[in-house]
Amino acid sequence: MRLLSLTLAIAASVLAVDPGYIVLLRDGVNVDEHLYSLRQEFAASQRTEDNGIIHIYESFNGYAAKMDPNVLSILTNSDDILAIEANKEYSIMDVQSSPPSWGLPRISSRNAFTLNTPYFYNEKAAGQGVDVYVVDTGVRIEHEDFDGRAVWGITVPKGDKDADGQGHGTHVATTIAGNKYGVAKQAKIIAVKVLKDNGSGNLFDVLKGIDWVAKQKETTKRPSVINMSLGGPKSFIINFVVELAVKKGVHVAVAAGNDNKDACQYSPASANGVVSTGASNINDERAFFSNFGECVTLFAPGLNITAGWKDSNTDSKTISGTSMASPHAAGVLALILSEKDMTPAESKEKIVSLATKDKLTKLGDGSPNLLLFNGYQKSISAKKSFTGFKIQRLENNNNVYF
């Protein structure tokens, strides 16, 4: 369950990534003029095979390139440059397989979970009109739990199919917006595949996925949420790009990480403006693997969560991790936005104000004692607060959402 330097939480070792660097230019630097000069340096190098532009990003002023040490040294001393980082491994943050789910009823109750706790939500504002981009391993968009509300957006890793060959992305997406397993049952899911079918990926591709989403948001003008159940060691560039997407109006939920360490050491968990989500267990304790600290916004169910899986249109699986906590938060962001469009700062303030306070234990130093809450519960006050809305129980009381 240890997160290995931007690697899959369940992996045995760090996988190799494509060599190269992410270059972030300062505001006002013309990327075409900069790249013209860079290509001049490439041409002058005696190691031309080690140099080249890999990708130019659109929503932020930067690019990916491979370069030899001499060219890298020249760039490092250039006034054009805000930051340079080597390509890194990124991957999913699940932990283990195990028994049935309890997450949905817990986020619509102020009290501890019991076997007959139902899930309440506003069926007239259940994420309708909100786009949720699942930046992950892809999504089985045909899964019956989506009822036709999932579409394919983009596949970034070269050579991978437009499919979820790992399962993680489908689990995340059905937790966000599935009819049976999901928080926001009318939200639209858009698959953004940045991780390969083995669950691994790299910084180049993650940034390309975020870049694509930011451009989509500019085009559609629709309320938009990104869920990123992935991460690794703290990175200035990944935080910068995520924060830029937030400034452009994209609401972002991220996994806090699975190393039982300070989340401020990780990205994008430490990015400003995101809902950084730690994992809790069925006993309202911080899950033993969950990162903690001041960079965590709140906690959400993340241990033994059942949702859809990749192998068939009816498949499901139970897994654990902050990867499972983050989509609960993304779903609540979609609920909030379907009732009223607002800025990411306002939606973050709203989700924090809704959270159930002082119920969690074993939090870790600096963590907020906040448990995700969707704003609905079976009580006289809740019914009065949401007059005209149907407060609905989804499942038979004898079953626990599986």
UniProtKB/TrEMBL annotation:
GO terms (molecular function) for this protein are: serine-type endopeptidase activity
What's in the GO CC field? extracellular space
What keywords would UniProt list here? Answer: Hydrolase, Protease, Serine protease, Signal
Q: Which residues form the active site?
A: D136, H168, S323
Q: Source organism's superkingdom?
A: Eukaryota
SUPFAM superfamilies documented for this protein: Protease propeptides/inhibitors, Subtilisin-like
- Per UniProt, residues of the Inhibitor I9 domain are 21-92
InterPro entries under this entry?
Answer: PCSK9_ProteinaseK-like, Peptidase_S8/S53_dom, Peptidase_S8/S53_dom_sf, Peptidase_S8_Asp-AS, Peptidase_S8_Ser-AS, Peptidase_S8_subtilisin-like, Peptidase_S8_subtilisin-rel, S8pro/Inhibitor_I9
One Pfam family recorded for the sequence: Peptidase_S8
Domain named Peptidase S8/S53: residues: 127-358
One of this protein's GO BP terms?
proteolysis
Q: Which residues cross the membrane?
A: none
Quick one: signal sequence residues? 1-16
* Similarity annotation: Belongs to the peptidase S8 family.
PANTHER family xref list: CEREVISIN-RELATED (PTHR43806:SF11), PEPTIDASE S8 (PTHR43806)
Protein name per the record: Peptidase S8, subtilisin-related domain-containing protein
Q: Which organism is it from?
A: Rozella allomycis (strain CSF55)
